[in-house]
Amino acid sequence: MYRYRSILEEGDELLGRLLGYIQTYEAGSKELPSGVRCSEIYRGRNVLYHLESPEGDYTVKHFGHLARARQLYYGWTDTGKARRSYLHALQLQSLEILTPEPIGYIERYDRLGGLTDSYYITRYLEVTGSSLQAQAREGGVEPSLTRDLARFLADLHTSGVVHEDLSPGNLPYIYHPESDSYSFALVDLNRMHFTASALDEATSIGNMDRLFAHPRATEALARAYAVARGWEAEPVVKALNRVCDRFWLKRLPKLALRHAVRYQGVSSTTFLRLYGQYLRWRRLRHLCPFAPLRTRLREREQAFYTRFLEPEDVRRALALREGYTHSPIL
Question: Which of 160, 228, 264, 302 is within CB 3.0–4.6 Å of 154 for a Cys-Cys bond?
């Protein structure tokens, strides 16, 4: 059983037609109706489509398959991701924060009330850039982009908006060459919440921990954000560097595993075994009272770090904490 929700007068009928187009495309059929084109924007756990049709230009997010327990939980509590995305988008609109215009959402339920499938549909938003990945990883700092991003984030936080996955891919932007300025939008809205008042300094800074990995970009953002909020810059720089170090240290094992499998030809089993050895050596070195043994353990750690961890230790946070030698941050 399908359920359609939209605040548009023609919403249910429109959503039904758009669902038909998407399901035809997903089934592999090349016989889409005249005037309808569908292309894949992104494929991962969820799939994002650009749908061009006589009804208009839309973005359709098809959420991935859920485990049975989660199907029942979302179905019985009416808290599915598509529904949350839609309601959050309406709330952002009421706060005059840019996000692709929400059209509606579609959910499919089984006989036990489990949520087995869902789609979130918005008006297609033409953007200049869909990601801030270059700034995040490579440290590229464009002053006007950094300034306007900081202002956008400050507006979010003073409005009580907490996006729980504030990452480079969730902040598409539009460049305005006549004024050398940028407008930012917020996407991937199912994980966020709103507060009744502006976020305090600690919460605001903590919300930006995953945005930029590169220290140069982090410092530039911190200084611009401090200006936007009317705060002293140096404490903001220190605090943002601290929370970013903590976040990326936590992510490092997963990123290093992916790098080893993709680029070094190492199996995940082998990497995990070697990483377990590395952790034991590190723990023993911290506990060992004998200097010669500590030196030998550090040498083993250094070899593992250089081979597997350094490529993804973008901030060199682990190297600085543990005293490993490392290449400079470019």
Answer: 228
